[in-house]
Amino acid sequence: MALCTPDWLLERIALGELPSDAFTAARAKLEQEPHGLARLARLETDSVETLARHPPEAVAREVARRLRTSAHIEAHLARQPERQGWHGLSMGMPVAACLVLLFLSTQQELAVEPPSLVPVHVELLETVGIKGDARLMVYRQDEGEAELLSDHSPARRGDLLQLSYISGGRRHGVVVSVDGRGAVTLHHPTTLVGPTKLQSGDAVSLTHSYELDDAPGFERFFLVTADSPLDVSSVLEAARLLARHPTEASTRPLPLPGTVAQTSFTLEKVP
Fold first, then answer.
1. In the CATH hierarchy, which fold is given to the domain comprising 135-269?
2. pLDDT tens digits along 48-89
3. Which residues contact residue 140 at a Cβ distance below 8 angstroms, ignoring those fewer than 6 apart?
């Protein structure tokens, strides 16, 4: 069975962001898919409605606000001794308050997705310090066989991975990843304004497989969960803050309020 056009490529068709030849080929393939043009029409309608709800000037103000908040948090972290770094509640009230405000900002304050957060790769799964049984599961696909990986398994460039989650009774979740090069990627939902709702029951696979790139050191996924809708942009901002500290990014949790739960899984990159 032929694969349908992935969401990230559908978005670029709608935005006209592909080179001419690639656009023509992608559009022709989409037209041959069941409901392909209907998917494109829904996306275009949603984009128009989103722009109506969030005028460019309002988005610009929100981006500026988040940049100021990020700079404040960074400055505060830089002033803290190592022993008061990111461990539990040792952050102190000023930075904790900033993180709570950042996290609680709603999707009505929509931020713009950075160019680096396009569809990508990466991997993992593990459960550390999370409330309940929510967790990630990752399989490596090899010649039709699926191998369930464990935390800190070795991984190589070109490994093809399938990521799944078990909600553990949590109703909403966001999956992001950080690699050894400091890149941050959003995996669920696929866009900043996508729904964060999780399916209950057995393991649920994300819609795309991921091929590991050549980022050195590690690849680490985070599953952030809550019982109410999450602000995707705030989770991404927390991941970007962590990614700026390479020595901490492979071991420490995301700097998020204690009102959410998080779990992570790390793959060790080997030549």
1. Immunoglobulin-like (2.60.40)
2. 777 776 666 766 666 666 666 556 555 555 655 543 444 433
3. 146, 147, 149, 155, 159, 160, 161
Query: Is the CB of residue 13 less than 8 Å from the CB of residue 27?
Result: yes
H-type alpha helices, the chain: 7-15, 20-32, 36-53, 56-79, 93-104, 232-243, 246-249
pTM exceeding the 0.85 threshold for the entire prediction: no
HSE at residue 58, side-chain half, CA atoms within 13 A, is: 10
User: Count of CB atoms within 10 A of residue 249's CB?
Assistant: 22
- Rounded-to-integer distance, Cα 56 and Cα 49, Å: 13
Give domain limits for the chain: 7-53, 135-269
The answer to whether the beta carbons of residues 108 and 233 sit under 8 Å apart is: no
pLDDT above 50 (res 104)? no
